[in-house]
Amino acid sequence: MSDKLAIVMAGGRGTRMKSELPKVLIEVCGRPMIEYVLDALDAAGVDQMVVVVGYRAGDVEAALSGRKDIDFALQPEQLGTGHAVMMARERLEAHDGPVLIVAGDSPMMRSDSIATLFEEFERSRPACLLGTAYKHDPTGLGRIVRDRDGNFTAIVEEKDATPEQRRICEVNLSCYVFDSRDLCHALDEIRADNAQREYYVTDCPDVLQREGKLVRALPVLKPEETLSINNVAELAAVEAAMRSRKPPPKGEVDTS
User: Fold this and answer.
1) Domain spans of the chain?
2) Could you give the C-alpha distances from 154 to 103, 170, 174, 197, in angstroms and in order?
3) For an engineered disulfide with 80, which of 104, 116, 184, 198 has Cβ 3.0 to 4.6 Å away?
């Protein structure tokens, strides 16, 4: 397989977390949440990571200074997820192979899920492969729409979804593997023609699909990976889930 590059979006604030820290530095079980993401990428065999920083960028860079194989890209203004990926453009253009895009505030990410995505990308060679999951309560998340044959057709945000689409339980979790050349092309085509005037990476699969390129969605992410952290209550839920999946201390037997 070609060298694997990951872009980790880590530019946001922790406003709803009632913290002045960058969101990715808020601790989960005693460690900054981004550390778990980077550990999962390491274990999945990612060769190089670009962490896109923004709010208090120096603090994030300092916190990760001891890690190898990490570059940083600065997003001076937070103008959407697509804009964040654009900030890594120089690194993208120098890369020939698969590019994984993930959020730095996803501490429940599993290395085996990421490894499976890369394996499927290598097998089917799409322009884009989305890592999706089934969630019992998909409220607030973009839905994965498929045709009658089960092929991916679109990501529909909840606010734009029809009542029928809102009943879909397969969701987008901002986890993608792109062909590097196709990603660079799609980034050139997306527009900030929305109320927020932001660029969204979710528009990239649509660009590629409209051009007749293969875009697939693979529901490989585990239910626990759908847990997000946007407020203090969700942080507590993730910490509880993380403690429950940790292996027992050496010498002890897990009898659960």
Assistant:
1) 5-245
2) 20, 12, 14, 21
3) 198
Amino acid identity of 202?
T
Terminal Cα distance for the chain, rounded: 38
Rounded to whole angstroms, how far apart are CA atoms 101 and 240? Answer: 26
Residues 79, 83, 85, 89, Cα dihedral to 10°: -140
Element (H, E) at 174: strand 170-179
- According to DSSP, the residues that pair with 131 across neighbouring strands are 218
Q: So what's the pLDDT on residue 248?
A: 44
Q: Could you tell me if residue 174 is left (phi over 0), alpha (psi between -120 and 50 degrees) or otherwise beta?
A: left
Comparing CA positions, the residue from 150, 143, 148, 216 lying closest to residue 177 is 216
Determine the CATH number of domain 5-245: 3.90.550.10
Residue 219 has a pLDDT of 98
86-97 pLDDT per residue, tens: 999 999 999 999
Which residues are the active-site residues?
16
DSSP 64: T
SS3 state of residue 40: helix
In angstroms, the CA 171 to CA 220 distance is: 11
The secondary structure element, H or E, covering residue 136 is none
Which residue do the tokens 């847990």 mark? 227
Cα-based angle 131, 135, 137 (whole degrees, multiple of 5) = 145
Calpha distance 84→70 (Å, rounded): 16
pLDDT-derived band at 251 (thresholds 50, 70, 90) equals very low
